[in-house]
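re: ur question from yesterday

yeah so i grabbed the chain u mentioned. its 83 aa long if i counted rite. heres the sequnce exactly as i have it in my notes:
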Amino acid sequence: MNIVPLIPMANQIGQFFETLSNREQSLREIADHIQKFWDPRMRRSLLDFVEQHPNGKSEDGELTAIVLQAVLTHRQQLEPRQQ
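ran it thru and got these structure tokens back, copy pasting raw so excuse formatting
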């Protein structure tokens, strides 16, 4: 799945949850939202992007710091389940 449209979507989620006063809660909420509402292909693309670009940056776009941290911190939760 193409990562280009997913980066702004992830950043919007991050922007919304970054307003919480507790950083750890923000990270959990970002990961929870992505896990619940993104299909497995979308999550796989996001995880692959972060694996290939550990700083969250490429010519395709840039993840905000909070989204990158949420993905790295909660990677296991975001892994699509094997069928």
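noticed a couple things. The beta strands are 57-58, 61-62. also DSSP finds five helices and two strands in the chain.
anyway ttyl
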